[in-house]
Specification:
The chain is of the alpha/beta class. It has four helices and nine strands, in the order αββαβαββββαββ. A hairpin with a 2-residue loop joins strand 1 and strand 2.
Length: 173
């Protein structure tokens, strides 16, 4: 286990909790955020994609924003976050439905056609990968745009999928 993964696991043990498939990280990742930890996690994940051509990073509002922004800064690309509410200023958009495992509710994600263009190469970044609903919605939006998903990077992968770059998996917790 690399040092960043070890640090995250120790932090969850000390300040969080694991209850089955629910991982509580409110004190340092997705409610109150430790920006130095985010920077270390982002460096680890961004490093795994350093050799890939990536035009933009994409995530979903709101918990994925911190890791996506930090990774985007390191990879020197912009990032997009899919919005959960469509503002009046967003007249042309891509949209797809997503179900939140943690919140137990469905929501529609929106991305303006102004910020996502055909042919672009995107990296999806998020805090968790649970059942894949958010990732599936992002994939649908990318497909609607005529763009390409080049990879998925998350802080914690709670699924059985091994094609996702993650700092930790549920089994490691």
């Amino acid at each position: 286990m690399n040092p960043v993964a070890r640090e995250l696991r120790e932090r969850i043990a000390r300040e969080g909790a694991v209850d089955g498939r629910v991982i509580k990280v409110d004190r340092f990742l997705n409610h109150m955020v430790d920006p130095l930890l985010i920077d270390r996690l982002a460096a680890e994940l961004a490093g795994r994609f350093a050799g890939h051509r990536i035009d933009k990073i994409i995530t979903a509002e709101s918990s994925g924003i911190m890791i996506a922004q930090a990774m985007a800064r390191l990879l020197r690309v912009p990032f997009i976050y899919a919005k959960k509410k469509r503002p009046l200023t967003m007249t042309e958009f891509y949209a797809a439905s997503s179900f939140s495992f943690t919140k137990q509710e469905s929501t529609t994600l929106y991305v303006s056609r102004e910020v996502l263009r055909p042919g672009e190469l995107l990296l999806f970044a998020d805090d968790f990968f649970a059942v894949g609903s958010t990732c599936k919605a992002i994939e649908q939006i990318i497909e609607q745009a005529g763009a390409t998903l080049v990879g998925t990077a998350v802080i914690i992968n709670k699924s059985d999928r091994r094609d996702i770059e993650a700092i930790l998996t549920l089994e490691e917790l």
